[in-house]
Amino acid sequence: MSITDDSTTAEEAAAAVTAGNESDAPPFSLELSQDQQDIRDWVHGFAENVVRPAAAEWDEREETPWPVIQEAAKIGLYGFESLAQFFADPSGLQLPIVNEELFWGDAGIGMSIMGTALAVAAIFGQGTGEQVGEWIPQCFGSEEDPAVASFCSSEPDAGSDVSAIRTTARYDEAKDEWVINGQKAWATNGGIAKVHVVIASVDRELGSRAHAAFVIPPGTPGCEQGVKVKKHGIRASHTADVHLDDCRVPGSCLLGGKEKLDERLARVREGKKSKGQAAMQTFEASRPTVGAQAIGIARAAYEYALGYAKEREQFGKKIIENQAIAFTLADMKMEIDAARLLVWRASWMGRNAHTFTNAEGSMSKLKAGEVAVWSTERAMQILGGNGYTREFPVERMARDAKIYTVFEGTSEIQRIVISRAISGIHIR
Predict the structure, then answer these.
(1) Do 38 and 120 fall within a single domain?
(2) Residues 304 and 345 both lie in one domain
(3) Which of 95, 190, 209, 309 places its Cα 20 to 30 Å from the Cα of 66?
(4) Residue 11 forms part of a structural domain
(5) What is the pTM of this model?
(6) Alpha-carbon distance 147 to 137, whole Å?
């Protein structure tokens, strides 16, 4: 029946709408549940009252803010139970919501609290049930003695190009041990982590199709911190090289187990398609959450600039009364909200097993990262000379934002992923 059909009455149209609403499909809504709102407000309170007051100090110190991590552990924000609760949200939105609020407080401290989640995601996504139960709680330590974990993929010559990973893992069948050798670079919590998850090649000839993920237990000989990186932004988050020198781990530390790995390698050697690559599986799952972090930074800068513009006077009036300032703030708000919708869409799709081409996750991370850089730069411009000083927080926010167009896949890499997904062509 056409909507232009003159024989269609208003009553018939209303009945059709009612019938559609009574179908099995849930109604479309962007309204958060009460639980989601409550958790959002709880995390926001922690970010506002604990994280923000400590942000400038730990940025200057360039050290892991253990007292803040411990406070997060005490209230139940940092730990296996809380992360499991966030992951369990059937909408997939709780984790990005939590990350946005934490990073609204401060990105460096937020990364110190949430950096462990990447290693946890690798264990959860690739490990067996037994491995999940054994290793994930150890990633967090205890309330009295919190710990962090590290996901180690990048190397000095293998950043965006994960196929160039040179770290190797050789199986010692006599001892049922894996011997790992190599160097990892830019590892969040690298060297200070209780648990490291390392991506290594078990057969260099097969390239990235022979990558596997290994857990390095606490205190394992041969796993040591290298150079600590001094960074432009997120300076409260520890980043360092990790050296692996004849590092021996039990056979049980191969995530997913050797039988599963052998089956995958056999398929590859027969010329069949591999079912995913260890590092990329983790990055693809985490990209919407990383995008949410960038949104938190962008929102913090926007809100600060808005408040400043409503108070600052020049030429006898508030600067927000100038269209140049007002329109910039309007654009900032629009871009931030648009980026958040992309993040929420990708998070919902990933959680509910809908067709996920990787383009959705990449689009969300790409948009959010570039919006964060653009918004923080606009905030600095609105503050003028004040925006360039460390007396005002937008300078730190701008430094923190830049990493979101670089790590876990540069903006250029995200565009390659999106291009391949929409075209079916191997774009280089």
Answers:
(1) yes
(2) yes
(3) 95
(4) no
(5) 0.89
(6) 10
